[in-house]
Amino acid sequence: MCGCGRHGCWETVVGLSALLRAAADPGDPVHDHGRDLETRLAELAARADAGDRRTLDALTQVGTALGTGAAVLINVFNPQVVLLGGYFAVLGRFLTEPMAAELRARVFGPDLAGARIVLSTLGFTAAVLGGAHVALEAVFDDPTLVPVAGDDGVSPAIGS
Ligand SMILES: [Zn+2]
């Protein structure tokens, strides 16, 4: 069951909840939403680096499922790049190998049909930065579009 109410969504096997469920028992500190996510992910990475079998198996399981779904996307859309963001980028060094193995088995063309798997370097703020960029793109393209302060001395807000 997925958080969206349907069954069998990709998120149910690659989402953060799926990883945490596979990697640690319910009382484990990595499940504690009171701790920040970066800290919890760093803890998982440390366990994986230390060779903890359960953590490594969980990461392999998620990486494989990531490859299964990404193979469909590559076969349908033939992208040049598949960019992994969010927690995938943070734990990417553990996910890309099982993901690539699955992609090699499932993508129709040779060499992943030309697609490269890339890890985002923007961390968890990538979506916000992208949204801000889209909102400001017109201003960067033509700064004269920004209205100047009116006679009332009040600066109009961008986009107003
Ligand atoms: Zn869903």
State the gist of this model:
The chain is built from 7 helices and 2 strands; from the N terminus they run ααααβααβα. The chain is mainly alpha-helical.
Topology diagram in text:
Elements: H1 11-14, H2 16-23, H3 37-49, H4 53-77, E1 81-84, H5 86-90, H6 92-106, E2 116-119, H7 126-141
Parallel strand pairs: 1-2
Bound molecules: zinc ion.
Structure write-up:
With 160 residues, this protein is mostly helical. The chain has one domain: ATPase, nucleotide binding domain (Nucleotidyltransferase, domain 5, 2-Layer Sandwich), CATH 3.30.420.40. The chain is 54% helix and 5% strand. It contains seven helices and two strands; from the N terminus they run H-H-H-H-E-H-H-E-H. The protein has a two-stranded parallel sheet with strand order 1-2. Helix 2 packs antiparallel against helix 4, helix 3 crosses helix 4 (53-77) and helix 4 packs across helix 6 (92-106). The mean pLDDT is 92. Residues 2, 4, 6, 9, 11 line the site of zinc ion (ZN).
List keywords for this structure.
7 helices; ROK family protein; ROK; 2 strands; mainly alpha; 160 residues; binds zinc ion; ATPase_NBD; Nucleotidyltransferase, domain 5
The biggest sheet amounts to: 2 strands, parallel
> What is the CA–CA distance across the termini?
43 Å
- CATH fold-level topology: Nucleotidyltransferase, domain 5
The order of strands across the largest sheet is 1-2
What ligands can be seen in this structure? zinc ion
The secondary-structure element order is: HHHHEHHEH
Query: What ranges have pLDDT less than 50 throughout 5 or more consecutive residues?
Result: none
Determine the strand fraction and express it as a percent band.
5-15%
Q: What value does the average pLDDT take? A: 92
CATH hierarchy: architecture = 2-Layer Sandwich
Shape: globular
Helix content: 40-55%
Count the helices. How many? 7
Number of domains: 1
Number of strands: 2
Family: Belongs to the ROK (NagC/XylR) family.
InterPro entries: ATPase_NBD, ROK
Pfam family, one: ROK
Protein name: ROK family protein
